[in-house]
Amino acid sequence: MNKAKSLLGGIALSVALATSALAAGVELNASSTGLAMQGYDPVAYFTVGEPTKGDYRITTLHNDAMYRFASEENKAEFEKNPEAYLPAYGGYCAFGTAMGFKFDGDPNYWKIVDDVLYLNLSKDIQERWEGDVPGFIERAEVQWDEIEDVAPADLQN
């Protein structure tokens, strides 16, 4: 675990400095403008089974974050039950959460497990996470309780 933390710690710093999608809030991964999931439609993962960019004209605000949708139908589904479509851990990387960090989740690296959407940081991280999905989810659940209200940068110190 220390080896993984060390690896992710180095990645975290570079990603945090290189990306503009740092959390607007603490428990939610959104851009500085409040855009969640880099503008991808959270409902589309469940309906079409792939990342789908949302339309900037079809949006809704949820927990101070702006979500975009590919269709009015997807927006309506989300508004009926947002919790069914929101990514786990506020949209932060599931593997990073398991290691006690908050890295941006990339909407292109995802998996639905037991009707929950999980995002990961990159292809390599997604592959590592898929090596023990149940174990990493279990660890992430414990870690999330401790880090949910902590700013991403504060976890790297």
TrEMBL record:
Domain of life: Bacteria
Family annotation (NCBIfam families): YHS_seleno_dom
Signal peptide feature range: 1-23
Keywords from the named record: Signal
Keyword Signal: yes
Protein name: YHS domain-containing protein
